[in-house]
């Protein structure tokens, strides 16, 4: 699928997949959503749907292109983020130069994160590119409030709203992550699902507590999933959780500690 972010967004997902399959891709999109939505992950999902050579309109999640997009090292994709409180004109000037370079693959893709923080000068610079985009270039603007963008920018982009993510308790999130690991989901899928729990230290600590409880319950209740997990494996995962907790207490990056743990439980 192209997307798996926020609420199920099934209609939006189907619409975007249809646009790609019917080769009706626009040169510019705005994806608007609240601050608790991982809009960059949303954009990566859409880009994979556009660029994946094995599953047009969706994404295989296995080819070299999908892998590069997941790891943010695709040669034709550039991300632009705010410097301080806003995206400055210099960043957009860099975008305008990069988008003119012949892509290695099919098209250049430019992603402007927090686009609604662009200065007026930056927006005016971007407008020149939106009016005459080179080749099959794709420009994606991620926004929390598109009302902060000028009407001329808005009029040249296809606009979509991403639904807010429903509230999830730590126990629900822990159960879902462990279920995903049991069913053979890949590391990057678990990282995406963890969301803010893999970036915020306090949330990560709460998630670790819930994951440990869930694993211990698997042992104590002799759960049917023990046919997939051996008891010694679960004990090892509990030890890995304890290690991740120690590292968080030692002020290690929450993102690094959680990614390392999720890599172990999917290994």
Major β-sheet annotation: 5 strands, parallel
Taken as a percent bin, the fraction of beta residues is 5-15%
Number of strands: 5
Q: What is the CATH topology assignment of the largest domain?
A: Rossmann fold
Helical proportion? 40-55%
Distance between the terminal alpha carbons, to the nearest Å?
23 Å
CATH homologous superfamily heading of the largest domain = P-loop containing nucleotide triphosphate hydrolases
What order do the SSEs take from the amino end to the carboxyl end, as H and E?
HEHHEHEHEHEHHHHH
Biggest sheet strand line-up? 2-3-4-1-5
Number of domains: 2
Q: Structural class of the secondary elements?
A: alpha/beta
| Overall radius of gyration | 20 Å
Q: How many helices does DSSP assign?
A: 11
Poorly predicted residue ranges: 1-7
Structural shape: elongated
User: Do you know the CATH architecture of the largest domain?
Assistant: 3-Layer(aba) Sandwich
The pLDDT mean sits at 85
CATH class group of the largest domain? Alpha Beta
Question: In short, what is this structure?
Answer:
The chain contains eleven helices and five strands; from the N terminus they run αβααβαβαβαβααααα. It is α/β, with parallel strands linked by helices and 267 residues long. A five-stranded parallel beta sheet has the order 2-3-4-1-5, with helices on both faces.
Protein architecture, described:
It is a single chain. The protein has helices at 10-21, 39-51, 64-70, 89-98, 120-131, 151-154, 170-182, 187-194, 201-220, 231-249, 254-266, and strands at residues 28-32, 77-80, 109-112, 138-143, 158-161. The longest helix has 20 residues, at 201-220. α2 packs antiparallel against α3 (64-70) and α7 (170-182) crosses α9. The chain has 11 helices and 5 strands. Helices cover 49% and strands 9% of the residues. Strands 2-3-4-1-5 form a 5-stranded parallel beta sheet, sandwiched between helices. By secondary structure, the chain is α/β, with parallel strands linked by helices. The protein is elongated.
């Amino acid at each position: 699928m192209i997307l798996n972010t926020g609420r199920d967004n099934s209609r939006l997902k189907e619409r975007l997949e249809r646009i790609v399959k019917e080769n009706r891709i626009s040169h510019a999109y705005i994806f608007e959503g609240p601050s608790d939505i991982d809009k960059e992950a949303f954009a990566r999902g859409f880009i994979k749907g556009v660029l994946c050579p094995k599953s047009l309109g969706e994404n295989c999640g296995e080819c070299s292109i999908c892998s590069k997009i997941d790891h943010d090292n695709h040669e034709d994709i550039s991300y632009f983020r705010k410097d301080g409180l806003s995206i400055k004109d210099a960043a957009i000037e860099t975008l305008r130069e990069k988008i003119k370079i012949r892509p290695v693959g099919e098209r250049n893709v430019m992603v402007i994160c927090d686009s609604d923080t662009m200065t007026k000068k930056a927006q005016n610079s971007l407008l020149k590119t939106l009016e005459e985009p080179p080749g099959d270039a794709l420009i994606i603007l991620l926004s929390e409030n598109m009302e902060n963008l000028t009407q001329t920018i808005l009029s040249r982009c296809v606009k979509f709203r991403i639904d807010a993510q429903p509230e999830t308790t730590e126990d629900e999130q822990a159960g879902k992550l462990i279920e995903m690991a049991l069913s053979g989901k890949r590391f990057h899928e678990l990282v995406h699902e963890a969301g803010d729990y893999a970036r915020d230290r306090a949330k990560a600590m709460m998630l670790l507590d819930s994951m440990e409880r869930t694993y211990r319950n698997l042992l104590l209740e002799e759960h049917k999933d023990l046919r997939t997990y051996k008891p010694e494996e679960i004990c090892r995962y509990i030890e890995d959780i304890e290690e991740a907790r120690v590292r968080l207490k030692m002020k290690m990056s929450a993102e690094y500690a959680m990614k390392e743990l999720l890599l172990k439980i999917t290994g």
